Amino acid sequence: MYPNLYYAFKDLFGIEILALQMIQSFGFFFALSFVTAAYFLTIELKRKEKEGLIGPNTVRVLVGEKVKLIELVISGIIGFIIGYKLLFIANNFSLFVENTQAFILSVEGSIIGGIIGVLVSAILKYNEKRKEELEKPEWREETVHPYELVGNITIIAAVSGVIGAKVFHNLENWDEFTNDPIGALLSFSGLTIYGGLIVAAIAVIRYGKKNNINSLHLVDAAAPMLMIAYAVGRIGCHVSGDGDWGINNP
User: 5, CA 20 to 30 Å: which among 48, 96, 144, 152?
Assistant: First the structure.
């Protein structure tokens, strides 16, 4: 089938876009499944709030603080990593397209790009905080609706789900893991669905409780979007030919 979107566009539309070689078909549909899940979860949480089954939460936040050194440091680190990789990829794009995974996970990069990334990221963070800065920081109460937390829920589910899926897969294939632990952990393949489901469910429910969202209603709202998201993700398996076709049937 189509290991990456380059081959899909070439076959289906007759268009050759070399940049699409870096977008793996399975990864594309995997990411699309989370976007789909977030969309339908938002709709369902809005419906439940409209029916009075769940309600908004009031939180106290401190606004107007001056920028902290730790915030600049964190932004700088993130900017360095992004710049370190991006400039290196731009200068070696053909090699990057040939082996995207190895390129991203390697320690190779551009120091100049990293320095530029640090400066840009730190300046943006500093300007952002300066706009919000007050003479005297003050506490304010803000109303947060459950559907406004869908972005955080999606990120928590994605990160914890991938971790859970990798951990369960490696536990099921212990011999492969012991033979090459680094490769097993960093590989983009090898995911166990129920491992991701268990760990992500625990993480999301804990986050919901922290924000006063009834766990039963949260789980109920998540059920339909899980089925739809799983279906979208599975399309990625079929499109990429990732072991879903069974044995040869002459």
Answer: 152
